[in-house]
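Narrative progress, year one. The postdoctoral researcher (J.K.) led the effort to move from monomer predictions toward full complexes, under supervision of the PI. The following entry was the first complex the group processed end to end, covering 1320 residues in total.
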Amino acid sequence: MATAPLLQFQTFTSSPHVSFFQKLAQLKLDTFQLSDASQAISGFFELSTHADVPARFLVDDTAFGFDPSTSPDRAKHEWRVPGVLYNTNTLDAFKTIDKTALLDAARATVCEAIASDAPETLQYFVLVTFADLKSHTFWYRFAFPAVLPPSPYRVTSWAPATSAAWQPQPVALMQQLVDLREMTGDITTRNFPQHFMVDRALGTVLPLSATVADPAAVVFGLVDSSALPQHPGWPLRNYLAWIRRRFPAMTSVTLLLFRDAVHHWATVPPMVACKASIVATVEWSADDSVNAPKVVGWELNVQGKQGPRCMQLGNLMDPLQLAKTSVDLNLKLMRWRQLPSLDLDKIAATKCLLLGAGTLGCHTARNLLSWGFRHITFVDNSKVSHSNPVRQPLFEFGDVGKPKAETAAKALKRIFPLVQAEGHLLSIPMAGHAMSSSQVLEDTMHAYQSLEALIDGHDVIFLGTDSRESRWLPTVMAGAKRKLVINAALGFDSYLVMRHGIPDVVDLGCYFCNDIVSPSDSLSDRTLDQMCTVTRPGGAAIAGATAVELLVCLLHQPVSHSAPVTLDTTGGALSVVPHQIRGFLHSFSQVLVEGPAFPKCTACSAPVREAFVEDGWRLFASVCSSKTYLQDLTGLSALMASADALSFDGSDDSDDDALL
Amino acid sequence: MATAPLLQFQTFTSSPHVSFFQKLAQLKLDTFQLSDASQAISGFFELSTHADVPARFLVDDTAFGFDPSTSPDRAKHEWRVPGVLYNTNTLDAFKTIDKTALLDAARATVCEAIASDAPETLQYFVLVTFADLKSHTFWYRFAFPAVLPPSPYRVTSWAPATSAAWQPQPVALMQQLVDLREMTGDITTRNFPQHFMVDRALGTVLPLSATVADPAAVVFGLVDSSALPQHPGWPLRNYLAWIRRRFPAMTSVTLLLFRDAVHHWATVPPMVACKASIVATVEWSADDSVNAPKVVGWELNVQGKQGPRCMQLGNLMDPLQLAKTSVDLNLKLMRWRQLPSLDLDKIAATKCLLLGAGTLGCHTARNLLSWGFRHITFVDNSKVSHSNPVRQPLFEFGDVGKPKAETAAKALKRIFPLVQAEGHLLSIPMAGHAMSSSQVLEDTMHAYQSLEALIDGHDVIFLGTDSRESRWLPTVMAGAKRKLVINAALGFDSYLVMRHGIPDVVDLGCYFCNDIVSPSDSLSDRTLDQMCTVTRPGGAAIAGATAVELLVCLLHQPVSHSAPVTLDTTGGALSVVPHQIRGFLHSFSQVLVEGPAFPKCTACSAPVREAFVEDGWRLFASVCSSKTYLQDLTGLSALMASADALSFDGSDDSDDDALL
């Protein structure tokens, strides 16, 4: 007996799948966030099919909730093992986590299973991870806790099941096991248990919970993870501990180590399994105490030393997917501490139409991209000029001469290929500009229809063109269609960012509510500085950013763009929703302004909206052919007449900051 | 007499040179600005050398102040004509300018010359322009005012000067004229006058001012712009008017039309001129009154119709030069109305060092470029990651994996090729990070030296790195060297932009003046969101813009970066110069904060500066090897000890916004 060889076990080789880390990354980002509470997970082992193939322990994206109904084949060939995940928050925490304590905790779980007469599994695993989502690097360490016997086991016999001189016929037994695996019906019973007993006399497979009068009349069966010719797999350790706890009088046991060669199995299943499986006898010292067993099981690193393993997913991922994941990461991290309510799906789904792809449009688009907006459409009728690139952050010197809208859209795609960006070369029909020829009329009508279709197809309209009159028609159209309008405008060293009201819902003024004259041709007689939008460069960057921040706040209100003005700062980061933000670079200051809609407004008042709904094109054409049409329509003319009588002095047209 | 042919004149063909428009553009931008006051200018005509070559009237960059000493050759072959420029402010003004009134005004000038007995020139010209500097398009229209006789002149003889049957010998006369042209001495007299007389008997050249007893004894000489075989040039018109005013009894005159063939002239000058020149006799009706003469002279357009001509310079210019001109244009236009004191040369010469080429660095650089800064250097030690491009506006998806500093510099050059941008891959030595090996020590020392050299070579240091401790050494170095430091930092939805004080000059705090602990390693144990600088995207755009606006304000103070805090808004656009600007995205607000330097500051206090001046590297090494070194050095330790005794509760280290 003393000369019988020691029983040695093949360890598991952890084989976490990329999908596990992807799922972990997603959960960390979306669910766990800063929590490092332990998570119940599950892994699988399969039967090794060749002595050279390690006994793989698989963990994949099903680890956090495996549904066997979605992969019935898997349930035939893999055996589930419960485990626990400790995902640490920092690399330091990962490195310094108390591994002894974790194994102690796992020992309790294992011992509980050993103490059960009907354990589902005796195997268990521990996984410690640190997910560096920034670099797509995952640090991890597995433990497969196994009870150490006080003194080693010894193997007194070891032979293929085909050669075993015992009842029942091994092939018939194998057939039973294979049948178990092939059963239809309740999918959870489709596989056979990791451990089972075989009645030697009857040749029947019994569950561990069966009453056994004489353990010597039973063969103890085990699904063996090993394919090594001389060694069983790791799960046998805890199984032996269970046998010894269950039948304390025994000092030896006959084992059936069920093995299989899955890739041959389809041909003659029982015979293959029978040839691969092992019948062995193992014995131990009767003096051993199995109380308070010691547990081992930390996996070594790939160098065979104590230490963590690492998976660098960045190298494996599709670059586009990587870009998406990385960009999402930065956004989702906002939810961890600062903005739990951040609705990134809503942001990603919001379709933004940017009228004007100049200084304001480019800055706005950049900020939309940063915030996770994914549908961005530009409208512009001009080409990139030499002076544009330094101020319009979607253009380069090499873009000079190209159409702005299309070039801006292409730039967005170069920055983030997954954005849905497009550009339309389109002259926005301008109120007050005479349609001087039939060609102009036709072109304008075409542009009118294109603009309307674009507004219909988007959720938010940003006004960022370089004239007042080009903002009138979009204001009217979007107002009538109850689209959200965010208007940004620049003065020399000031800026205005505002949202338009929604008629009948939110009584807030639009861009034209402060005007008492119709928009008219302001472009024809301009000096050079008026042609060039002379502004301090910082204004556009700040206004573009502020416009997008305002939109994000609005999207997070219960009624989105119909939200009332809220200036209460106690409601959290996205709770303040002003009407207008006016900023002044010369004093580094910003004020919030609120103004109701003007009932005689040339753009958003009821008469204008009604005229638009009745026949929008006719309204527009009338505005172009008569300078007083809108003033008459809205009643402004009458107001001005009475105001004139009182020496009314309300015009602010002398303001240099023509767009504010 | 009635059968003699009518005298017809070859008009001038205006030939404005590109350099004229370039000069005009520059003057408009820098000097005239919004003024449309008339400007005295001058043009030149030369002798046409061939009948097929039009009589060109040249206007070039010397138009606004010709210095004959700089081009003596020119003074030999071109005759100067005074003129007046009306440069309009708008295209509309150009189109609608009152051309009749302009010609009337010119008639007065011409008539004044005719009334003079010694006119320098009888020719004059009017130029109306509109310079669309945005598109580099120049609209222009010339007039060469000429007095119309009441009835036409008639030519009674017309022959080459060589065949003339009159005294003196024409060749001898030509020799006199050519000698006049070749004279050395006072350069202004080097050429002969446009008009002169020749004493028939003596063969001598006389000025117009000479006393003439018998005009019939005189030949009236004129430099003739025409090379047509049968027609004199335009200047003869006013000359005839002068002759008739001066000698009212005359009804006919003998003319010497001096012509030349410049390209042959070098060979046998007098003979060539003699062969080309014309002696002609012209007569007119004695009944004519020359009072209140009518004046004509607007040049037709290239189609031969009334209308303006146009020069599109954009097509001719070097694209790089175009970019420079266009970019300068936008900046210079600010001086027209808003910022007359704007010192763009100072801005262009200011060398900016950006520490950190991430979100803040990229935004800052973009704004520097917009403002006309032309020396921008980046320092960064990292590579572009997948999440960067959407937030860092100098990177694209295709840049992922490239070093940030160099990539950012290249992007700036793609935007504006004339910028002097460079990137340095450099890890800024970080206070409180242990130098754990000799390699680390060596690398850090090298980085220390590189950083110091970079700070020495720049005027302004922007701090935009992603940790507190990486800002310490640059703060110490720049403070000791009295460089201007602009610090920008982001919280989740807030931002800070500040300038550091200058020790002993401006008592303002630095970034570390609010700290009561030394900067230490904050990078090793960070959760994912701390690693990723989770911020609302708008903050960086606003902070970057604000940082540059602050710098521009400082550069326009009399003492630049030593300027005291000024919050008085009455001093104009660049007069407010705060210390700190703190902004809050959640409330769309901004406040100005001012704080003095802290005498125990770990970065800018006297003990630290003195230790740096004595041995900067030793100071840095000490800070890295001892966590309390700085606190001991500055006296913070003692302060904290006494504070502890009083249950001092001043630490704000729990702030999530670690960088604010």
